Amino acid sequence: MSAIDLLRELLKASEKAANIARVCRHNERLFSLLVQEKEKDESNSRFEQDFKTLADCLIQEMIKHDIGTRFPELRDNIRGEENAKFTNTAGDSVTVTVTDDQSETVKILEKILNGDNDAVTALVDEVYRDVDLDMESLELPTDSIPLDNDWSELGIWIDPIDATAEYIKGVEKLTKFPNIASCGLKCCTVLIGVYEICRGTPILGVINQPFAEKLLAETDDESANQLPHGGYGSCQYRGKIYWGLSVGDLKFNNIAPHEPEARIAILSPSEQSKYVDFIRNQLKYDVIYSSGAGYKILKIATGEAELFLLSKGTTYKWDTCAPQAILRSMNGDLFSLQETLINKCVKNIAYQDRRTIRNVGGVIAYQNIDKLREFLKL
């Protein structure tokens, strides 16, 4: 069995997910139908209001279906953030599922969208669309990379749209560093991470940034329908895909080395002031604030920021599995902040306990482990 076979399917699924996210967000009428507030037991305590969208649920179930069809032994080990139950405006609860039978998916969406055929067609077209990615441009290894595990010994965590609040609001704002967004659609990511169940170690991660680049203008020109990594004539954004693979001593990714403009720490706007002051005054970092855990850790992987720290236990396994796998492919990692600072034990975030879905002790991410050692000395 080859890790590259799995990587190819994850890349395709992530791009199909990005297409769904772009189509839903661009069509104002469709988008207005899709948003509902999460139940209290589903929501993140960090937010006064935590929303899910039908796009989230549909993306999650689509990825489960596509990967589960290609790798049946993996099917029962694919987990995601969203409860697939959605309630329509009439108060009817419907469980979102995607199956081989396209007509069944149509019936489910018709119930949720109260028979709005245009909206249903737009969504179903994307769910069952064949995605043709230019794998060469994504720099996949040419050699087969065998895995030590059977497919049934691997697990997958999905965050269908990380930073859902930013996806809904869509208010774009950059930090003083133009390559790093403070909020808005650039902070939204599709996260798919693969881990070894027995060790809890992330080995393969895909991050798709559906709204990486805003196009200058809409166009009906035929060339717009051939934009690399997403974008149809009706969409205003071009996406970007990042991946990382770490199997034993073999490490691969498609991220080019990057020299940061400054020594940057990227934090949540809600971070505790004692940590902000320490990072700014003692470690001498330039502190910036941004949204989306996946996006912030991605910026560590790309080298555009050096340190990500979150002191509160408000990230979940679906937030961190994919970006951690990418960090590990670059000899970096994601660690438990509590274990690192309080118990003086550098402990990686791990995934073998299926009952624990929250990173309770906070997280700290570095691409360069020597920088982490400097941090610990202080």
UniProtKB/TrEMBL annotation:
Superkingdom in the source lineage: Eukaryota
SUPFAM superfamilies, sorted: Carbohydrate phosphatase
Annotated binding of Mg(2+), by residue: E81, D159, I161, D162, D319
Pfam families on file: Inositol_P
InterPro entries in the cross-refs: CysQ/Inositol_MonoPase, Inositol_monophosphatase-like, INPP1_dom_1
Alphabetically ordered keywords of this record: Magnesium, Metal-binding
Signal peptide limits: none
Cofactor: Mg(2+)
Protein name: Inositol polyphosphate 1-phosphatase
